[in-house]
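Q: How would the structure tokens look for this protein?
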Amino acid sequence: MALSSSISYLFLYIFIAVSSGFPINSLETKDHQSVNQTFRSAQQIYKLKKMIATRLQEINKPAIKTIQSPDGDIIDCVLTHKQPAFDHPLLKGEKPMDPPENLRRYNQIRNTSDHFQLWSLSGESCPDGTIPIRRITEEDMLRAHSINSFGRKFPNASIHEYAVISEGNDKFYGAKGAINVWTPNLESWREFSVAQLWLVAGTPGKDLNSIEAGWQVYGRLYGDYLSRFFIYWTGDDYNNGCYNLMCPGFVQTNRKYALGGAITKTSTYKGKQYSITLKVLKDKQTGNWWLGVDEYGSEYLIGYWPSKLFTQLKNGADEVNFGGEIVNLKTTGPHTSTSMGSGHFPEEGFGKAAYIRNMQVIDTDYNLKAFKNPSHRVTNLYCYSMVERDSDPNWGHYIFFGGPGRGEKCP
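A: Here is the predicted structure in token form.
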């Protein structure tokens, strides 16, 4: 369900207050009348709207075809060499690269009656030579902390909670795993719930580099509570980088998938289960990190993070992680009721709890391997947890994870 557009002007006023030095958190708790008293003039509103329009023009590239998605998204089919990535100072003048030889077996597109994302349900698709990009609207911008922070993660690490399994103490050239897809509940549109794989190198708080991919529910970013396929990257400890194609960086090469697009099929409690198999692989020759998806028995490359974006990931990842993450803003005082995974604890098992199966790391010789010395990071055991399973003929190394958030054991 989409967030009401009637609150757009309140967000606009908050933007003005932020630009004038007023703390956003205090403004969000005031009633509409007192908030209005902090705003200066219609001129400022005009100026801010003009700033937003300029930013939207930078993000939204000219489309040669437009597709209306059933969930309300507008998908623009943009020429591949005109995508946002090539606005990055380090990538200007470049064109999309071909995949490395060992990945050329991946299919780039095929006709199928199954549709991974809602925008393609009608049978519409983007033409050859283009990629689908979810159009960013003024309402999307107004929900952000500020124009400059649009598309970025919360900078405050203390509000993030995790249930994660990690493999470290080595160099890795990638990872692969099948991530169970759900639509967890959010207490607030400002919070999110995520299931993902991510590869990191460097030191947190200093020079951390990260590549992330999975699914998320995030009202503030998308304006609804649908489960969406996403990526994220940073080359400087989350000071820069962004979700999907909301800033220059990731180079998309596939016309089948829209980053940030809603996922068609999600799992139900005691019902049918769905998962997405993701693979991230470093190309030795160029240093680029390629993202692939396995869908319905076929493999597709979506695009790559150029090596130029990173400092620490140039030599490979120091750590591979799989699991869940939520943001806990405590908007009502106690712990948030935002759920992780299915919203049920891992002990409930298949069909009830979320899972990630066939978790593997890719070593520097491009061998897929199971975790050897995994470590667990569960930040709030009574709210969200994780159970690891070593081996299964079909599932390999896997975990169940998640939880409901606030409850009897999670005050």
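The first helix runs from residue 8 to 19.

Residues 63-142+156-402 form one domain.

Upvote if useful.
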